[in-house]
Amino acid sequence: MGIIRELPEQLANRIAAGEVVERPASVVKELVENAIDAGATKVDVDLQEAGIHLIKVRDNGHGFHEEDAARAFLRHATSKIRDEHDLFRIRTLGFRGEALASIASVSHVSLKSKRADEDGFEMKLEGGVVKATNPTATNVGTEIAVSQLFFNTPARLKYLKTSATELASITDTLNRLALSHPEIRFTVFHEEKELLRTNGNGDLKQVMLAIYGRQVAAQIVTASSKTNDYTLSAHLVRPEVTRSNKQYVTLILNGRSIKNFALTQSVLEGYHTLLPIGRYPIAVLEVKMDPMLIDVNVHPTKREVRLSKEKELCQLIRETVQLTLREQRLIPSVKQEP
Ligand code: ADP
Ligand code: MG
């Protein structure tokens, strides 16, 4: 008799969760991206114990149909793509249909949702298993509360860093999401302390002000440029203000904050001698392009992407940064901040 079996769905989900849900910040990222994909103009995040105890994300997006709710927690279940052609023109942040299944498999989840033309409902899950669904009065939109994260994966729970480190990672994640979507009003609270508030008026500079403060915001210069394939909008902080690592160079491709060594390097080359050795700039670069040119299906978290014309974009970035800063006739000063 053969010895190979298909794993039960819950177990398969829990294994897959290892890739998508590494830490509390991953949950925050997935929930907020879903809110953005649902067309939200307002997203509120509440955290307790650096997200380990509670992560609650509330949006005013289109909400769930009650009949879809249980299906949304199945693996590879999504409303965002239908067939293989869609894979080449992804306009949403999600499309893999993995996040809710993965998150739910390693936590307790409460989902409250309401569509404009339907009644509200609440669904509770534990370890991915639906425990109850009830009608409830709620506003149009969705609220997902994730508690007891990693309750059934003790190794993962143990591997988490200190609360301060996890919270820093969540903050970084939310800052990137807010920078990618200045048109969305974000509020973020950690145990009653406000971590972030943006006004959602679409002005990226004001998001930078909310995140980096007045001193930095006063030093922003903005430039735009384009090629046949790419439209770039660069918000560069003058090199009077620098940081000790590259984390403050934010790259946003079609509304998604990504990590890309070559593009970051191009920003640094653009600043070049204006930066003191070992210091890095604060900058946000927004790039718009045909989704055909970008492959986001490289890694489950979609932070890394492949570009078909990366060199062209690198050159555009390098030249735009260089030219803009040169036009400003900048004289680097030695004033440095942490
Ligand atoms: P994906 O985002 O890749 O489609 P998810 O597991 O994150 O997969 O979500 C599954 C589905 O649940 C989504 O395709 C969407 O239809 C629905 N969904 C998730 N979050 C929300 C939300 N905040 N508002 C409305 N629908 C949502
Ligand atoms: Mg998603």
UniProtKB/TrEMBL annotation:
<keyword id="KW-0255">Endonuclease</keyword>
<protein>
    <recommendedName>
        <fullName>DNA mismatch repair protein MutL</fullName>
    </recommendedName>
</protein>
<keyword id="KW-0227">DNA damage</keyword>
<dbReference type="GO" id="GO:0004519">
    <property type="term" value="F:endonuclease activity"/>
</dbReference>
<comment type="function">
    <text>This protein is involved in the repair of mismatches in DNA. It is required for dam-dependent methyl-directed DNA mismatch repair. May act as a 'molecular matchmaker', a protein that promotes the formation of a stable complex between two or more DNA-binding proteins in an ATP-dependent manner without itself being part of a final effector complex.</text>
</comment>
<keyword id="KW-0234">DNA repair</keyword>
<feature type="domain" description="DNA mismatch repair protein S5">
    <location>
        <begin position="208"/>
        <end position="326"/>
    </location>
</feature>
<keyword id="KW-0378">Hydrolase</keyword>
<keyword id="KW-0540">Nuclease</keyword>
<comment type="similarity">
    <text>Belongs to the DNA mismatch repair MutL/HexB family.</text>
</comment>
